[in-house]
Description:
By secondary structure, the chain is an all-alpha fold. Helix content is 41%, strand content 0%.
Amino acid sequence: MAGFSDVCGAGAASAEAAALFELALVLFEPALRALALTSGTPFPGLPDVPTLKQAGIADYDVTTWYALAFPARTPAPVVEKAGRALRAALARDEVRKQLANAAFVPETSTPEALQAHVRAEIARWGAVRDRAGIKPE
């Protein structure tokens, strides 16, 4: 991650863009000041840090997300069982607390919702790539 070694080492970083969990161990240090969050919603663990939308940059909502994925043609009962197990784990207070301490905000959905989200992200970032004139090498 560019700049992170500057934050943790002897140098000083003038700016940093990273997933909150990557900075979780150092973000709460008094020497660092978070200026804004890239997500469209505030993070409960940093109530005094505005989102970029709240800071005046309209239509800015960029988050890091993770998903549980399976190979194509995985039997539906296997996917459903894993989904139930994941939802059960994420419902446990101690799991949610540990995730919150690492700056994660867990959310669950359905395989169909995930597929729609992935397609939307591909379209969104493909459009950014195209507007920037970036070509595959």
